[in-house]
Each structure stands twice: as structure tokens, then as C-alpha cells.
Design a protein that fits this description.
With 81 residues, this protein is of the alpha+beta class. The chain contains 4 helices and 4 strands. It starts with 7 loop residues before the first helix and ends with a helix.
Length: 81
Amino acid sequence: MSSERFSDDSLNRTFSCQFCDERLPTSDDMRTHLVRCGTKTDKCPHCYKYIQRSIFAYHMNHNCVDPNMFEEVREKDHIFE
């Protein structure tokens, strides 16, 4: 019986980016990649605006809403207080 903690399968494991499907060898590499990849933009096929990949699914699932818009409104309201 082997005392190895990891099987050959776990040693060959890679991580797939949820935005671009790029495969990376470690979770640290994936973390770094997600910061860069998530801030890139893709054009929405419905409203034709460029939306960050990190919020693209939310944008599509909520009728092309831009969640950053809510932050902008809050900042404007705060200015007038």
C-alpha cells in the first residue's frame, strides 16, 4: 500500500478559467489570471455595450443592467447630502 497523499490524477489537475476557458496549472496562477481576465470586456449581443467579463453573466441575466450604475447613483446621492 502506498503512503502517497495524492493520486496521479490530482498531480495532473489543472484549473479552467470561467471567463475564457484557459487552463492553468495552479490555483495561484488561476487567482492571478482571474484578476486580469475578469477586467477585460466583451460586447453584449443585446445592448452592444462593452461589459467586464466578471459581471457579464449578471448583466445578461438582468436584462442588460450595469451593476456599476448603482454605485454611481449612490455616489451622486452622497454628494448632494
